[in-house]
Fold each of these.
Amino acid sequence: MAEHPAEPRPSPAVQDYLKAVYGLVEQDPDGPVTTSRVAEALGVTPASASNMLKRLGRMGYVSPVERGVELTGRGRRAALEVVRHHRLLETYLATALGVPWDQVHDEAEVLEHHISEALEARIAAALGHPDRDPHGDPIPTAAGHVAPVSPDLMCDLPDGARAAVARVSDRDPALLRFLAERGIVPDALVEVVGREPFGGPIALRVGGRTVRVPPDAARAVNVRPAAPAAP
């Protein structure tokens, strides 16, 4: 990002690992970033992940901690740069080009490594400097500030609770389509109507209709407190 213009841009492979480590911390700030979790996030073998994490350590991007690694200051800056590129690209593809929200992630995965800082700035300005991408993920600012993500999950809401959708995981296009068809998108209001026994679907009131969502799908949705209902 613009704060460190002399810092050379890491290779796409290094960027992918830094973004994966950042993403794991964003999902679970208290959980260790282990080799196996990084390998699973990137779809590589634990041996490949271990070798790359050791390389990132030698490059000064990560440091070892108990049961895993953490980003150094340099690593976090590099991770936030590629995360900013990715989420701005997702937003541009969805809003300016009309690419469906279940397709923008894969497109941005390719493009994020190749846009310049000047183009990044133009995209941000053209979009009005958005603070969230189409899935509700916060877009880091050019200065490296990131809004916190609500840790509350839709699957944990008690019966009768009302909440607003804060973000939806973008890792599974089929899941995004499933949730969108049921109106479960960022800022949508949801109310838990009930649950079927033995781990069955959760019944939700969304946009004036009742929909049913499996617990695993509800686990991919972060929520925040909703404004009180109008009297």
Amino acid sequence: MPKKSIITGILSYGMSGRVFHAPFMSQKTRFELRAVVERSEKRAQQRYPDIISYDSVDDLLNDEAIELVIVNTPNNTHVEFAKQALNAGKHILVEKPFAPTSKEAQEIFDLSRKVGKYVMVFQNRRWDSDFKLLKQVVERKTVGEPIELHVRFDRYRPEKGPKIFKELPIPASGVLYDLGPHLLDQVIALFGKPKKSIKIVAAHREGSEVDDFATLVLSYAKGLTVFVHASLLVANPLPAFVLHGTKGSFQKVRADVQEDQLQAGMSPKAADYGIEPPGKEGLITLMKPNGDREIHYSEALKGDYNDLFNAVYAQIRLDEPFPVKEEEIRWQLEILEQQAWNG
């Protein structure tokens, strides 16, 4: 017997609601998009005329028909709204960063068990095309045992951004909490919890009140070292992934197309959704026994955020564990919240 669709509400129709959530929630197969919170301009209702556009979070949470709430509000409100939604009897899917601290994250998970509802974290970059290729290279030991991995997210944005909550010195602001959860989640998904970590942050943009440069150094068993880096002042970005192993090296530029496609209005059901354009292939360099280099290129796997929402559906309707685990989020936040090294 087919399982019924999950009735869903989205707490904000900013960029993330419009691009990363509504297109998947509105497919009317596994999910039914019932409502969105829009405090002023009713843009969601213009795009989806059958939905309810609530004026406040409280109004949406009081809607008894809604089963799942997507918490995609400013970073510093995630904890408050996650708890409110759980206490209102809703399952929740929370945007990154899940919480400013591991203690607050644990409070949310503990509350979910108390009220009998599921908590899921929207770590969508696990389903990026470029990361999926890196994961395949690691799992197949294509370049041997991993020795050194560099994971980067570089941008050039010298001016302060329009999202004020990211630019003010408040909890979960700055580039480390903005981009760090993506990168750390990818590393943790591959290798688990590191033995040790070092955090370095700095502010270089004129008038910046938060970090716009961040580096994490993670030490793993068997000598693996991982460098996680994010910056808002990189004019010529380096490859997003560089892996050196005992048999060779792998590198790949950041080339997942899903965000751009969704921004342009492409349906997640389109045949070419999530497929990288030619010229962005991963470079694999292997060393032969005679010392010669063997070089070839690998196409990325199809990126597909549909699989994330498949996992949300499976958790709620089939009680199948969500792939982003509670302990992985706790490890991530313990790394992010540690005191920065200042030399």
Amino acid sequence: MLEATTMLKFRTARQRTTSMRIAIAGIAHETNTFCRDETQLTDFYIARGEKILNLAGTETNTGGALDACTEYGLTAVPIMVASAQPSGTISRVAYDSLKSEILDGLAAAAPIDGIYLDLHGAGVVDGIADLEGDLASAIRLKVGEAIPITASFDLHGNISQEMADALDGVFACHQYPHIDMHLRAREAIELIRDMREQNFRPVSHVESLPLLMPTTTTFLGPGKEMLAQVLAAEADPDLIDLSWFHGFPYTDVEHVGTHICATSKSSREHAEATAKKMAAILWQTREAFRPLSLSADEAVKAALAATQKPVVINETSDNCGGGTPGDGTHLLRAMLDAKLTNACFGFIVDRQVARQAHEAGVGASINISLGAKYDDLHGQPLKLHVYVKSLHDGRLVMQAMAKGSRINYGLMARLVVDGMDIIVASNRSQTIDTEPFLALGIDVTRLDYIALKSSNHFRAGFTEIAGTIVTADPPGLTTHHVEIFERKNATKPLWPVDKLAAYEPE
């Protein structure tokens, strides 16, 4: 129970203000519990004050929220926003520190009229399976029921009803690649404004399916078709939002699955009926989402057979965006064995080799042991003699998804071996757009074969370039073969792992 003096620091819903004050905070992390290492506080990029406000104008969650505040004449009050590359379970010490800073920051920033949270949806902490549910509940307890709290999410969230009940609005990005993050954050801010001005309280219902959704783009195929139905249902005037959370299958928590969250202005029954209807449609069409998995050799053969060039080969199973090391060598080895020419692999993560190339300098020829330094699952190191063609510091600005935001790949090098370019970077990230290639002097439109590590975000920057897209799925921590991961916490059979998986709306 909050003390009365604490509660009085926050404005009630009925108080009129000349300029609403909207707190901006969040912790965003996609947790792959099958990664061996814990995620520590030092792994997070933490933005405070001006660093948060500087995200205005970027196509990110926080950027969209800030732009909406400016447009509607609201005052954005930066608290703290923390994010980290997808990785292993978050240490309890790290989470407790971040959570405490947000709670203390909210108290110090009072009075406030609403809270916007930049979240992911698949956060897991040591001892806490639902980061977002825990954080949202703690914030709700802190500020009371009168303050609107909304959040925007990655659609790969494993979300809970507890989390939804602590919030007033749940807005997952609709698209994968996530080209609409800023737009969904804008809707979250709009809901806070509308709640204050119109004095209503939304309700949300989360309908969860025992379905481990493969990484499925919404740009084409069954993902695009399902999203069209979601957007059509969202046109209901009494519905504030309808979010399809694909879920994150690379985690072992009780609430793993695929989720439909409906937020209604009229009633809980309306939200529940809408969510159940969409969930039933998704379950009935689940077989359409079963992926085709090609080994590295099979993917290279398919690329060689393609007539429409350039061919983009995406290595989905070593996608840093899902927590992998990014240093897998399966696909690169297959490309070298096939002696592909007019080709580039962009990029493999190997801090040691990148540093070695920078120390040698442009024009040097060096012997390297490339990749596979994290584990044996992602391949074996490649012993190569390479030519150092160009170097870069890795500090770039994203131009496709999250456009306008800065990214740091660390020291980067363009190495040439047997006529093929290999880009090596120091910091983990998937390849989303063409900037890493351009930084090192490579025009991908002139290539026949472009290889990269990503499941679907690469489509934001490469769809218009690619003549053909081939997906490689060799062994890795984000393979489509989700059946290889041991699950100790699942409470019911899950599709497609278990034939007994079943869903019946109650």
Amino acid sequence: MRLLPGVYGSDRSFESRVLALSVWDRDAIALGATAARLSWWPEIPDDTVAAATVRKLASPAGFHLSRAVIPLELIDDLSGFRLVYPSLSVLQLIPQVGPTCIDEALRRRATSVPALRHALSLTPDRPGNRECLHHLELSRDEPWSTLEREAHQLLRTAGLKDWRANHPVKLPSGLVYLDIALRRWRIAVELDGFRYHSDPASFHADRRRDVELQLAGWRVLRFTAATLDTMTDAIRDLIRQVEHGAA
């Protein structure tokens, strides 16, 4: 079947369309969700092949082709197929899916906030940059979820300091990352979202992790989206208890 002018394939799958694009235009550059799906976010639910191309063509079914000037510094090569770096693909995704893509990229270690800011500086005239800058500011402590971003904002508003997001701790069962760690007081704040904590296996793993953290000298506080408004007061109360006990 015809996928692009002069290029045919046995089906219209995402993989076939990506291959067809690489044959039709060797200089094509995968953008946004397509670049993310090919590199750091294979599960992203977007089947359209989006790319920048110098060849003129109205976008056929299953494609979104456009003209765009991409800085060479932000172009990567994947087995001969060009695509934008994760930092730029995240910025391109923000208007489509919101800051969730920042969380995904940070959690998967695909990029970092400084790299995202650098990509933003290299594309100053790109539409949506104001929105991207806003979300990057809220994500400056590198949250891995929407709930973490909200918690970070509450901590900053409350004036709480000396905390670190996604702090690594070695436990007997392996390396874990505390959602928020106040290392000075050995307080671990864990944020339970339904996406990652809704099944029995995750529930029991969290309880086992809490026990190991407590045995390692950490005081564990857990919050959900519904109880997040109590977080800062609970942290302050626990800090007072720790400092009073130390005194």
